[in-house]
């Protein structure tokens, strides 16, 4: 099983080992690493981009609980250097962390966060209306989230037997396998683009500054 180094590390390069390189039906190769910094697609977040032995990684997938790195040419088994695209990682971590803060603010006024989707250009957090959910406006939500961002609260990670939780400052902990900014200030000001409520499901669409 590949060790997910990105759970505990923000490093963008790593020396590790190729454990296996298996041809796939579509002519590409599936690389299994001893340790990886690549966040696979899942949990509402797109995969990291980058290289293994200088070869571009085309997809990173969760397959049967393990991380599969898909590349266009075979990589020899043995020692290898991997590198993550800093720009893509930074954007994904900012969008994903903003999602946590929106969920926190909504929860504070009685909304239950149920889903997050943090793909660039289509970010949203979905809440379920509860008894006692207070009215929300795009402006009010945006201001409350931006206030948390301005406080620049540090990220805390807890890993208990492979179950990883994250929180910012004194906000509540959430189980999460994604990549996050080191402190909320790194997110930069967010924009709440629209709120849409349908059958008790409130979608908050948002973006970060580019
Ligand atoms: Zn997260």
Task: Describe it.
This protein has helices at residues 86-108, 138-150, and strands spanning 3-4, 13-23, 29-33, 35-36, 50-52, 55-63, 66-71, 78-84, 112-117, 124-128, 155-160, 163-168, 174-175, 190-198, 201-208. The model has no long low-confidence stretch (mean pLDDT 96). It is α+β, with helices and mostly antiparallel strands and 210 residues long. It has a 6-stranded antiparallel beta barrel with strand order 2-3-7-6-5-8. The protein has a 4-stranded antiparallel beta sheet with strand order 9-10-15-14, covered by helices on one side. The chain has a 3-stranded antiparallel beta sheet with strand order 11-12-13, with no helix packed on it. The chain folds into 2 domains: 3-84, Elongation Factor Tu (Ef-tu), domain 3 (Beta Barrel), CATH 2.40.30; 88-208, Threonyl-tRNA Synthetase, Chain A, domain 2 (2-Layer Sandwich).
